[in-house]
Amino acid sequence: MENVDFPKSFLWGVNSPFLSFLGNSREGSKKQIFENVEKDLEEQLSFLEKLKINSFRFHLNWDLLFLDTFYSCAMYNNFIEQLRKKEIEPIVNLIDFDFLSYNKREAIDNIESEEKISIFIEIIEKIVSTFKYNVQYYIVLNHTTEYLKRRFFKVTDVDNLALHETVQNLLNLYDKSVQIIKSINPYAKVSVSEEFNVDEEDQLDLVFSFIDVIVRGESPFFEKIAFKKSDIDFIGINFNDFTSNSEEYISLIRELSDGKNNIDLDEVIKRCSSKYNLPFLITENIATGEDDSLKSRYLVNNLYKINQSLENNAKIFGYIYNSLSDVKINNHLLKTGLYRIDDKNRYISLRNFAKIYLNIIEDNGINERYLKYID
């Protein structure tokens, strides 16, 4: 089998950790909070230097933005400028519902009110005005469908009126954010990203529903509602394998995921390509198992599927691994990062599968050494 090559302009990247390396940003005085976050960002930069990626996707911490919008924007802009000096393309997650629901639960209630959405819009305008042309890629909303599932579909009796009102509010939040971004930086690309790790095919209708609303102005999932089509430049595909061979993960994984991946990444890409004539970015991809050889197999197999999809004319322009480091949540250590960390949250080394990923990036392709991992 010959080497598997990727386009020259392909984006290779990694996501920032779900939470700060240094702990919860809400702890301590305002000065201590920002000192910790700045140290955290410096540490991220230092470890990015050792990688060969050309893009870095990170979420904005709304705890910080609500605490001091001006200082937070300046801090993030400095971080972005440092990324650009290293020739790393910043990809900014404006609103990540997983992060919001974990770190600032009351912010979720604000999104459900048209009146309170204006608070988010005011801050987003300050964010984009600060970044200007430094950021070319924005994920405006991340994990929107996961939020809707948690909010409305944990019970059998769904309040359709409240559901439709919330979807309309989310669409308004998206539209207003895009208008701000495009008015300040008309060259910027805007998107939403959704989680496709579903265990049943009929669940895909729900996952596609909010993208349908944005792209087409309608969705089979919301049959009686007509929406206005929105501006969107690409679609983010989150495809995470939340399975594990370790008992310590079980309670957390059940919390983060309803099931295992029964639908392959190439099938998701194929369906996206048939539904939307838009480019795609793989915005999250991860395996939670501990075995390095299994992680390597999972990584190489997914990259091979992406390459085959490109051969079949899918418009995929990049791959983002999730995440830069292991993550500790509720005393559970998710050993999912390119970098290991010990119990004191200090880095140890790159994992073996991460070295494979870096070699693939350097070659811009999968060479014969790694083809053995392909099923």
TrEMBL record:
<dbReference type="InterPro" id="IPR017853">
    <property type="entry name" value="GH"/>
</dbReference>
<protein>
    <recommendedName>
        <fullName>Glycoside hydrolase family 1</fullName>
    </recommendedName>
</protein>
<dbReference type="InterPro" id="IPR001360">
    <property type="entry name" value="Glyco_hydro_1"/>
</dbReference>
<dbReference type="Pfam" id="PF00232">
    <property type="entry name" value="Glyco_hydro_1"/>
</dbReference>
<keyword id="KW-0378">Hydrolase</keyword>
<dbReference type="GO" id="GO:0005975">
    <property type="term" value="P:carbohydrate metabolic process"/>
</dbReference>
<dbReference type="GO" id="GO:0008422">
    <property type="term" value="F:beta-glucosidase activity"/>
</dbReference>
<keyword id="KW-0326">Glycosidase</keyword>
<comment type="similarity">
    <text>Belongs to the glycosyl hydrolase 1 family.</text>
</comment>
